[in-house]
Fold these 4 entries.
Entry 1:
Amino acid sequence: MLFNKSQEENIKNLETPFYYYDLTLLNSTLDQAKAAADRYGFHVHYALKANFNDRLLQAIQAKGFGADCVSGNEVQKAIDSGFPASQITFAGVGKSDKEIRMALKHGIFTFNVESIQEMEVINELAEELGVVASVSLRINPNVDAQTHHYITTGLDENKFGVPTSELEKAATVIRKCAHVELMGLHFHVGSQITDLNVFKSLCVKVNEWKNWFEERGTTINVLNVGGGLGVDYQQPDAHPIPDFGAYFAIFDKFLERSAHQEVHFELGRALIAQCGSLISKVLYTKSGIKKHFLVLDAGMTELMRPALYQAYHQIERVAMGNTGEATLNYDVVGPICESSDCFGKEVPLPVSKRGDLIAIRTAGAYGEVMASRYNLRDEIRYVYDSEL
Ligand code: LLP
């Protein structure tokens, strides 16, 4: 259950839709992740792309996580939020010259480099600024993440990373570039990965390519294995916090590392998905020839994942003291002029009426950040548990 009785009373009067963030759950999640990683001396960078809401970032930074950024603005945001530059990584297939210069000036921990050409550009720009850039080579390991094809990133057909066929050339270029220094190797195979065997396969590849570089006399100080740990979208109340212990244990068991080598992670979703819900009001109920519809005041503009990836989110009515009512199967839709603006089809819910509040769960990651103003919608509103 998302809210207690007094919180329910308080939210009745709030303007909807809004993102509700449970900072108490976030802090417990962060504590568990940190404790599980610390057990093995692992370093965790939070992937800002999942959510860069200020209050969430403050909480994450305060617990000592690093930051994984994919744009110059994310690097700046991480710095403004108090993440030390020495704990910031900058990834992404298309870093612009402006973004690279900015990150170089801040002296970030490392660039996760995605092509040989990018390596050469970073070398040139670092030379111009009279600095040496710390770089890590993102290798595309061809591991199937067994997740939705839109969020699979480590297959040969994906645009990410340097293909293994190019590594010989990449190693030569790195040796020639006087203004880059290789810090480590970077891998990321996909997101919302729920089968931990995928991470086992990843470890096998990481070992293989780390050995490959070491056999050629290259020192590798950091093994960055990316992010991707999935969360339970079906049962958020049963599993509010992912099993970080089992996740990190896989890497401890299967990753071969020497004493000088650090292992880094870039977790986004697993840290913040469950602490966020989209709260919306039923504007209209209507029954067509084949369907019952609930028309909400939130749409794909606030939460795009169902429309974009057919992603499942649990939809529930904020109880308001009613239990044991009859249910109907509803198509839960938004107000946007697109047929894909649908949060769920045939969703069993108590028979609903105009004004009822609906919670769309597990929306803390890739929710607010992917929102748009399409149809000239309002800016996103937020409410935190401490305010209710
Ligand atoms: N590192 C890299 C290089 C990434 O590309 C990503 C996510 C992460 C780390 C963090 O992955 P996580 O731990 O959050 O799975 N919008 C999609 C997800 C896109 C993920 C992009 N990359 C969604 O709504 O499911």
Entry 2:
Amino acid sequence: MADKPSFYITTPIYYVNAAPHLGTAYCTMLCDVQARYRRAAGYDVKFLTGMDEHGQKVEEAGASHGMKPQEWCDSQEPLFKDLWKQIEISNDDFIRTTQQRQYKAVQYLWERMKESGYLYKGSYDGWYCVPEETYFTENQVRKSDEANETVGQHLCPDCGRPLERVQEESYFFKLSAFQDKLLKFYDEHPDFVQPAFRMNEVRSFVEGGLQDLSVSRTSFDWGIPVPFDGKHVTYVWFDALLNYMTAVGYGDDSDEAKAELARRWPAQYHVVGKDIIRFHCVIWPAMLMAIGEALPSHVFAHGFLTVRNSETGKAEKMSKSRGNAIAPQDVIDLLGVEGYRYYFMTDVTHGEDSAISFERMEQVYNADLANSWGNLVSRALNMSAKYFDGKTPELDEGWEQRDNPLRAIALGIEGRYAKCMDSLDYVGAKDVVMELVHAANHYIEDSAPWAVAKDPARAGELRDIIVNLLESIRICAHLLAPIMPETSVEVLRRMSLEEEAATDDLAGVCEWGQLKGGVDVTKGDALFPRLASQKK
Ligand code: ME8
């Protein structure tokens, strides 16, 4: 592995206050597709996900179920792990902030922070949002003026829920000292925050001035203790952000851990939702600057999945607390796992908020998977089996050099596909692959192999048509594999390309001319049976 470049990608670690839903799964899937793509593109990938277990919110969730926090977190772990397995998430590691490695790393961080001179003891007097685990100053809070039970309450400016007043002794991180350093860093690394328009939000937030951050708590104890002051536990975000380094060896002084850290850090991508962009693009970089560690290359912030409120007609963020979250199982029941992955990865523009609906899922599934990709595979494999005695045609000398409309498209695909995939633009990557899929379906209509097959004098022509179709399918299967891995393996297997399917190596797959001739073709069941409309 050592000769391959490292590619380290992370999801947020999710709070264990409720079961994972479509939104959590969406972010995890974005990372999974990138991890699979990078493995196939020759990187030594580490893909990390996990659970954020400390803090008030998790403690309260446990208490509401009559459980101690640790017991509660342990009970939630299978919900995450089982869902990730079910939707084909290929993470290499799963971190929990209650693990010993995180405890050690966080305590090590405290010592480094103390040495850095960016830590001081004081007292915090202000507002706190438990659902967001975030501090707010008097100026930031929203006062309720609505004629309902929240009148006169102080509300969270982000989520609108009531805030708690907190007064406690606390350690502070001198975030205010990092304003200029952060702005300089953004100037020097304009692609640090992606998509680009999110960088403007981050920059104007920092330009507006930074307040020191309370990073320990004394009014509550579900957290990692501060090593030099037993009364304090670590603020949940100060703990959580470090998970990205813990998982690659930070705070462990064994030689293996040091080598791993040197090889893996900094990460290439932290993929997060837009709600936690400030933590990742402002606080985390400042923490790393304070302790003299390198900053990650990119933070990719995706938008929210929204659903239409049937009463107001407005799109609203899908969340448990609004009671509008769709369970992943409902989508799996409708589309199957790979249809589910295809829809979320190729129909949802990754930087923006996206309204999702079952109607749209059905449309996309039927148009792209049932009628286009699935139909192409089924027609081409059936014709090969029918006209060539259950096999792919025997290939003649120089077949790969002969011009035809599909070869012309395939030759131009690889670079465009890679450009999209490299920047997490899976919608763009899908469009590129679908050009070849659609062209192949048109080619079937234009070349009418069923008519050609009737004339023995046109046997060579028939062979070429089928070969061109199968070769296009081979290429598309590889390019779609990061999104629908099982389907691609199945398609390649049906053309007796098991070895190729197993290597998941993208290098050179778009080169025209790698089909195997005269090998078994399996017709198999429809990959994506068409859905009859069943509006939900
Ligand atoms: O914030 N649409 O955890 P969290 C799309 N523990 N994505 C959504 C979504 C929606 N409607 N709802 C949630 C935390 N997400 C911290 C992170 S990291 C060091 C600590 C996704 O359980 C999105 O990626 O609240 C969002 O950023 C994440 O879940 C928040 O998960």
Entry 3:
Amino acid sequence: MKHVATTVAGSLPKPAWLAQTQKLWPEWQLDGAALAEGKRDATELAVAEQVRAGIDVVTDGEQSRRHFVHGFLESIDGIDFTKIVRKGIRADRYEADLPTITGPVRRSRSVHVAEARFARTLTDRKLKVTIPGPMTIVDTLHDVYYADRKKAAFAFADAIRAEIEELADAGVDIVQLDEPAFNVYFAELEEWGIDALNACVRGVACSSAVHVCYGYGIKANMDWKASLGGEWDQYGIVLPLLAQSSLDEISIELAGSRVPPDVLSGTGDKRVAVGVIDVATDDVETPDDVHATLETALRYIPAERLIASTNCGMAPMNREIANRKLRSLVEGARLTSFTA
Ligand code: ZN
């Protein structure tokens, strides 16, 4: 008997000695060489927690990034982090301080490759690295250079593809592109979003995934979710489009959401990482809760293509609660066995 495989969407909470806790854009608590060392130590802990919990496909917990989008952009040319503009993002759902694109976007050096190489030394398990997708990147920046979201997105896709090629060489098994913006901009998704996504993974030597979610458990997202009505039909549009993409895996949220589970039938022949852990509540799911969510997913997706995951990143969560949730995730997946 096999059990449903497990992973996490990406980030885990950072230790309090490394960064401010329970914040989306936390300040580092260290600097210089101490910060570099602290990031590595926190990565060891994040990987160890996942291995201890029994997660099959682990990440570095994004311990070296302040934010899942801006952490990637800090190493990309053409972006000025001193020109900060406060703007509404995700269709004005919330305001954020955004750096500005002031010149051609270029990846003149590696971004997360050294971090991935270090994480690779910590475990023999499958290693996943997350990178923001091109639409989510352009939605999290102010742009005075391209002044065209599609053009900017394809410039980022080139940078992302170069990064993924190096990550694959470093022994990363799967790269996941995070595209929460896909759940917001449906016209752009259809027009160029999938093409930009495909451009990121063209010819790369590792497996690929795309994560589309309803966001972290921050107040702006909770308010947005409350406004979406009794049935969240966004995936009904998004998943059939992703099913046509060239990526191998789709990561979505299901636990504690008002996502109608029959949207899962729109995932084509992709592997589907289904969120069985709600990151927007501190209530810890029981293994039986996790098992029940997986059983629901199994009505639409065969067990060999199903992966149990978290709904979204856990970066802004309480660390102990996040660890308890990881353990429930694995125990619930182990209750969900099948014969191959
Ligand atoms: Zn997410």
Entry 4:
Amino acid sequence: MLKGLRLWHKIALLVACLLIGVGIPLAIKFAHRAPQRLATPALEDDAHWRELRLKMVREQIASSGIQDPRVLAAMEAVPRHAFVPPEWLSQAYDDHPLPIGYGQTISQPYVVALMTELLDIQPGDKVLEIGTGSGYQAAILAQLTDRVYTIEIVEPLCLQAAERLKNLKVHVRCADGYYGWEEYAPYDGIIVTCAPDHIPQPLVNQLADGGRMVIPVGPPGSYQTLWLIQRKGQEITSERIGHVLFVPLLRSAEDLTP
Ligand code: SAH
């Protein structure tokens, strides 16, 4: 049957047979091997993100003096890029805060690690955070204990963080954190990630015996002092840690600057 065909016709026929017989089965085989993508590819915790995260811990956190292996492990484990708005994804593991909307920020990774180390959380400790923001700091706390409570005053941020944190079983409340969360007090650790101009007395009252509070205090718009407050019985001690820059603690979401 091939006898009547010219040579180049035969070659074309051979190539077509090869394509159908080998190419298509191979394509089907490799299509099955292609990695499964999540609905939101940016949130996929693939090797690329993990590499950036390990580099962040090595070069920005461990090298800056954070030593607690549990804190370093928590910072290695939590995918920070999942807490950053899409337009800032490329900077998710950089050494600075990033905007999260409503004039608020996700804190610099080093500051998150420093404040977490200062809290010295033990498994089973009850910890309260004021200023949930993106939910990143709460997710770090949840690596260290399974009793994490967090309060956010800006409702849309609060609801978004609650959704992100639901698998970690973090308790999220949308309210003014100045008053703490009386219902679950006392807390072994309290971390405040927005800056009041004085230490809120309700938070001191909700600190357990032996409890530690890490809080930036100072005027809005300029550097604040980071304090470590400790309760031993009725005695409250305070230690100055250094200077930090946080957004102010608001007393109402109406105080948000547009
Ligand atoms: N810990 C956050 C960073 C928070 S930025 C993170 O990991 O992303 C500070 C947050 O504190 C902002 O989201 C701000 O809305 C919130 N905040 C300000 N005043 C507050 C208040 N009185 N009570 C609770 N949250 C407050």
